[in-house]
Amino acid sequence: MAALDLPSGLDADAGTPAPGTPRCAVTLTFVAPKVGFASEAARAVLGEVEVVPIGLPPRVAVRVL
Fold first, then answer.
1. What HEC string does 1-65 produce?
2. Nearest to residue 24, comparing CAs of 39, 9, 38?
3. Please, which residues have CB within 8 angstroms of residue 4's CB and are 6 or more apart in sequence?
4. What is residue 31's predicted lDDT score, i.e. its pLDDT?
5. Is the pLDDT at 63 greater than 70, yes or no?
C-alpha cells in the first residue's frame, strides 16, 4: 500500500497513528517530511518516505517550514 502525503489516521505533527492506520510500503509526501515522521510510532506505518517536489520555490518553503 502507498500513502499520498501521509497515511490516513497519522497525526502529521505528533506522529501518532490512530487505531486502524494502514502500514504502508511507501509514503509520497510533498515539499518536505512532516514533523511527526520523526517519531518511532510514525516510522512503523510510513514505510519508505519519498519527498515529491510540487514546484514550491525553496525560498518560500524555508519560510513556511
1. CEEECCCCCECCCCCCECCCCCCCCEEEEECCCCHHHHCHHHHHHHCEEEEECCCCCHHHHHHHC
2. 9
3. 27, 28
4. 87
5. no
